[in-house]
Write a structure and sequence with these properties.
The structure holds two protein chains of two kinds.
Chain A (H helix, E strand, L loop, with lengths): L3 E4 L2 E4 L5 E7 L7 E6 L6 E5 L3 E2 L7 E6 L2 E6 L8 E7 L5 E2 L3 E5 L1
Parallel strand pairs in A: 2-11
Antiparallel strand pairs in A: 1-3, 3-8, 4-5, 4-9, 5-6, 7-8, 9-10, 9-11
Chain B lengths: L2 E5 L2 E3 L5 E8 L8 E6 L5 E7 L6 E2 L8 E6 L4 E6 L8 E7 L10 E2 L3 E5 L2
Parallel strand pairs in B: 2-11
Antiparallel strand pairs in B: 1-3, 3-8, 4-5, 4-9, 5-6, 7-8, 9-10, 9-11
Chain lengths: 106, 120
C-alpha cells in the first residue's frame, strides 16, 4: 500500500503570506495526486487534481506542483477564508489520504 | 447542480449492521464510479469503498474488506454501503463521493456526510 506523509501537521500564517504544504508518497505516484480543503463542519472540497490542475471555481492563488514522490500545495496571498484543513490524496494505486494540515491565522 | 445526499447513519451497537444510502442528482449517475470515504472524529480521511459504473467491480481497503459491501442502483441514482460486524473504530462521518470514468481518480463532489456511531 502507498503511504502518504503530509507536512506540516499544523501551520500558522499571516494574511497575505504565501504558505506551502507538502506530501511525500512512499513510492512514485506518477502525478496521481489531489488536494482538498475542508472547513470545520463541512465536507472536503477539491482544489487540485493531477498534481497541478486547478479544479473549476478554485481561486488562482492555489497551485499544485511536484512529481514522482514529492508534491506540494501553495497558497499565495493568504486570505481569511483559507483557514481550513488541507488533505492530499494519491489515487495512482487505490486511494490514500495524507493526515492533513490545519492552517490557522497568526 | 451536482448533489449527493447521504442518509442512514446513527447509533449502533458493536457487532451489528447498518446500511447507508446516498441519493445522487444533477449528473448522469450511471456514467461515474462512486465511492465512500469516512472521517473519524477529529481525524483524517480514509477511503472505504469504490464501485464501477455498472456495479460489477468493487474495491475495498483491508480495514473493511469482508465486512462492508458497496452497491448501486443506477435506475434510482443511488449508492449504498452495507456495513456488517461493526466495530468502535468504524465510528466516523461517512461521505459519498463522485469519482470519474475510472477507479483511480480524484473526488470532485462530496455529500454532506452521515454520522455513524458504534457504541454499546
Amino acid at each position: 500500500d502507498i503511504q502518504m506523509t503530509q507536512s506540516p501537521a499544523s501551520l500558522s500564517a499571516s494574511l497575505g503570506e504565501t504558505v506551502t504544504i507538502e506530501c511525500r508518497a512512499s513510492e512514485d505516484i506518477y502525478n496521481g495526486l489531489a488536494w482538498y480543503q475542508q472547513k470545520p463542519g463541512k465536507s472536503p472540497q477539491l482544489l487540485i487534481y493531477n498534481a497541478n490542475s486547478l479544479h473549476t471555481g478554485v481561486p488562482s492563488r492555489f497551485s499544485g506542483s511536484g512529481s514522482g514522490t514529492q508534491y506540494s500545495l501553495k497558497i499565495n496571498s493568504l486570505q481569511s477564508e483559507d483557514v481550513a484543513s488541507y488533505f492530499c490524496q494519491q489515487y495512482y494505486d487505490y486511494n490514500t489520504f495524507g493526515a492533513g494540515t490545519k492552517l490557522e491565522l497568526k | 447542480e451536482v448533489q449527493l445526499v447521504e442518509s442512514g447513519g446513527g447509533l449502533v451497537q458493536p457487532g451489528r449492521s447498518l446500511k447507508l444510502s446516498c441519493a445522487a442528482s444533477g449528473f448522469t449517475f450511471s456514467n461515474y464510479y462512486m465511492a465512500w470515504v469516512r472521517q473519524a472524529p477529529k481525524k483524517g480521511l480514509e477511503w472505504v469503498a469504490t464501485i464501477s459504473t455498472s456495479g460489477s467491480r468493487t474495491y475495498y481497503p483491508d480495514s473493511v474488506k469482508g465486512r462492508f459491501t458497496i452497491s448501486r442502483d443506477n435506475a434510482k441514482s443511488s449508492l449504498y454501503l452495507q456495513m456488517n460486524s461493526l466495530k468502535s473504530e468504524d465510528t466516523a462521518t461517512y461521505y459519498c463521493a463522485r469519482g470519474g470514468a475510472a477507479p483511480q481518480i480524484w473526488f470532485a463532489y462530496w455529500g454532506q456526510g452521515t454520522l455513524v456511531t458504534v457504541s454499546s
